[in-house]
C-alpha cells in the first residue's frame, strides 16, 4: 500500500502555530512506518511492506529495536494501537487484524473487518480505524466490533487518505497520505479543526530514498509529540509554539 514516496501553518480554527524541533532521535531506515505509539518510555512501531512487516518495541533514545515480531509474509502491516495490555495491529488488504500481548508479543487472537486497514488509535476505551476513505470507523475496544463511523470534513469538504492516527488530548491527529500534512479531527463529529504542514523536517539529502511522512506518537505524561516517516532516518520530537510569542 502507498509505496510512493514545523513551521506549522494551521487553520484559524486551531490558531496560528510555529514549531520547534526539541530533539531528534535515530530511526531505522529499513522501517516502513505504518503505526507508532509511545508508552512507558518506549516507542512501539508497526511496519509494512510485503515480507517485511513487523511489530517492534524500540528504545527511543537510540533507535535500537529491543523486541521484534515479523508478520507472516502474506500480510502487509498497517496501524497499531495499545489498549490496556494488548497491541492491536491491522493489515492493508487482507481484512485481518491481530491482537498481541503487550509484554510478550504473543498472539492472543485474530479478527476480521471489511475493506482496507490504514491507521489505528485509541481513546483508551474504543479504537479509531482509518481505511483510506473519508471515514473513521469506531470499534469497541474489547470486542473489536464496529460501533459507528464518522465522516471527516474540512470546511464541509471530505478529507480522504487519512493514514496514521494518534489520540492527542481528546482529539485525533491524522497523517494525510502523500503529503507532509497532519489534520486535527474532532472524534465526535469528524470536523477538521486545524491542519499542520510538516514539510522541511528532513533536509533534501536526508529525504533521498525515503517515503512519505507517516507516524505520530504522543507522550501523554510528558506532553511530548513525536513524528517520523516511512524509511526516515530520524524521529523528531516537536513542540508547537503559538505564533507571535
Describe the structure.
The protein has about 240 residues and is an all-beta fold. It has a single domain (about 15-240), classed as Methylamine Dehydrogenase, Chain H (7 Propeller), CATH 2.130.10.10. The chain is built from 1 helix and 22 strands. Strands 1-22-21-20 form a 4-stranded antiparallel beta sheet, with no helix packed on it. Strand 10 (about 120) and strand 11 form a beta hairpin. The chain is globular, with a radius of gyration of 17 Å. Mean pLDDT is about 90; it is low at about 1-15.
Write down the overall geometry.
globular
- Uncertain runs are 1-16
CATH superfamily: YVTN repeat-like/Quinoprotein amine dehydrogenase
Number of strands: 22
Task: Provide the succession of SSEs.
Answer: EEEEEEEEEEEEEEEEEEEHEEE
CATH architecture: 7 Propeller
Q: Which bin fits the share of residues in helices? A: under 10%
CATH topology: Methylamine Dehydrogenase, Chain H
What percent of residues are in strands? over 45%
- The tally of helices reads 1
Q: Structural class, judged by helices and strands?
A: mainly beta
Strand order of the largest sheet: 1-22-21-20
Distance between the termini: 41 Å
Radius of gyration: 17 Å
Could you report the average pLDDT, rounded to the nearest whole number?
91
Q: Which quaternary structure do these chains form?
A: single chain
CATH class: Mainly Beta
Please outline the major beta sheet.
4 strands, antiparallel
| Domains, number | 1
Amino acid at each position: 500500500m502507498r509505496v510512493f514516496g514545523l513551521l506549522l501553518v494551521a487553520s484559524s480554527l486551531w490558531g496560528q502555530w510555529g514549531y520547534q524541533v526539541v530533539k531528534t532521535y535515530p530511526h531505522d531506515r529499513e522501517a516502513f512506518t505504518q503505526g507508532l505509539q509511545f508508552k512507558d518510555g518506549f516507542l512501539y512501531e508497526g511496519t509494512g511492506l510485503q515480507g517485511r512487516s513487523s511489530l517492534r518495541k524500540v528504545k527511543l533514545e537510540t533507535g535500537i529495536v529491543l523486541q521484534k515480531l515479523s508478520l507472516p509474509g502474506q500480510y502487509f502491516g498497517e496501524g497499531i494501537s495499545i489498549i490496556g495490555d494488548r497491541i492491536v495491529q491491522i493489515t492493508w488488504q487482507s481484512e485481518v487484524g491481530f491482537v498481541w500481548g503487550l509484554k510478550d508479543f504473543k498472539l492472543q487472537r485474530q479478527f476480521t473487518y471489511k475493506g482496507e486497514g490504514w491507521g489505528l488509535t485509541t481513546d483508551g476505551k474504543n479504537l479509531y480505524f482509518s481505511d483510506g476513505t473519508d471515514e473513521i470507523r469506531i470499534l469497541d475496544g474489547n470486542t473489536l466490533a464496529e460501533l459507528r463511523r464518522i465522516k471527516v470534513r474540512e470546511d464541509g469538504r471530505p478529507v480522504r487518505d487519512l493514514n496514521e492516527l494518534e489520540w492527542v488530548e481528546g482529539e485525533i491527529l491524522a497523517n494525510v497520505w502523500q503529503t507532509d500534512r497532519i489534520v486535527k479531527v474532532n472524534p465526535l463529529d469528524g470536523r477538521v479543526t486545524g491542519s499542520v504542514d510538516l514539510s522541511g523536517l528532513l533536509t533534501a539529502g536526508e529525504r533521498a530514498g525515503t517515503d512519505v511522512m507517516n507516524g505520530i506518537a504522543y507522550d501523554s505524561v510528558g506532553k511530548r509529540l513525536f513524528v517520523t516517516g516511512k524509511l526516515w532516518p530520524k524521529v523528531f520530537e516537536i513542540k508547537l509554539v503559538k505564533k507571535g510569542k
